[in-house]
Automatic annotation (TrEMBL):
Record protein name field: TetR family transcriptional regulator
Alphabetical list of Gene3D superfamilies matching this protein: Homeodomain-like, Tetracycline Repressor, domain 2
InterPro entries: Homeodomain-like_sf, HTH-type_TetR-like_transc_reg, HTH_TetR, Repressor_TetR_C, Tet_transcr_reg_TetR-rel_C_sf
Organism placement in taxonomy: Bacteria, Bacillati, Actinomycetota, Actinomycetes, Kitasatosporales
GO biological process, one term: negative regulation of DNA-templated transcription
Region feature (Disordered): 1-21, 251-283
HTH tetR-type domain span: 32-92
Keywords noted in UniProt: DNA-binding, Transcription, Transcription regulation
DNA-binding found in the keyword field: yes
Basic and acidic residues: compositionally biased ranges: 251-263
Gly residues: bias regions: 264-283
Portion annotated as DNA-binding: 55-74
Domain of life: Bacteria
Compositional bias ranges of the Polar residues kind: 1-16
Amino acid sequence: MAVTSSRAKKQPTSVWLTERPPVKRKADQPAGLDLDKIVAATVRLLDAEGLAKFSMRRLAAELGVTAMSVYWYVDTKDDLLELAMDAVAGELDLPDESGEQADWRDQLRHLAFEYRKLLLAHTWLPKLLGEYLNFGPRSMAFSNATLRVMARSGLSKESTSGALAAVYQFVYGFCSIQGQHRARCRAEGTTLDEYFHRVVEAVQGHPRFAETMELSGDGRYAREGMSAEQMLDDDFAFALELQIAGIEAMRERQRAAAERADGDGNGSGNGDSNGDGNGGGTD
């Protein structure tokens, strides 16, 4: 029998769906402490030390207060992590809502690159996405911006969620792996270029991997003196163009199907009308 955690059995919730009364500072509470400062310190710690080392005690020490002082402002560590997720979403540069005349492709590219920049700046973030509902105002502003852009792509409404999933799941997956590379390099005290050089040198001369290196084009990193970051940037940009081209192709397919359906309907109606008219005239 599968064992399900108590948390998984609970009704999905979010700090953004729970009304919490305003905090009234007691006389023995630290002066100058507020929720914004707590969330900002949380983000700093997560960026510097990672998700695995984060704890309420560590956060309290960073703030110079007791852990109980932090709990005056949040009920749980989960709530604080969700607040941190929304705080960093505020770094995203969103298109102007009034820019309806802008090319949706350019805006989608911009949003995808912004999302990538966010995930790479905060490598703990991909691990939390999906674990929390993430209904914060900044996160929802990003979601709404992507929906507005996609609404102008010409795809049917039924296809919008699938198209956005294709783009942003790609960004998520790409950045999750790149973020792991960065985390490993940081732990080893090396650079991404040094790490990639070691990998290439380890497999380049091995007969088992010769065909793979040649077919995949990864050998270009060593042959052309390309930096690891440049290679990843190029791969990301090209893969994103494939996503956008796929959306355009699907839009044209949907339009063609709609035109055929309209044509079949008109043809059927005309045939019935002509047949009845001709039959009446002949009689």
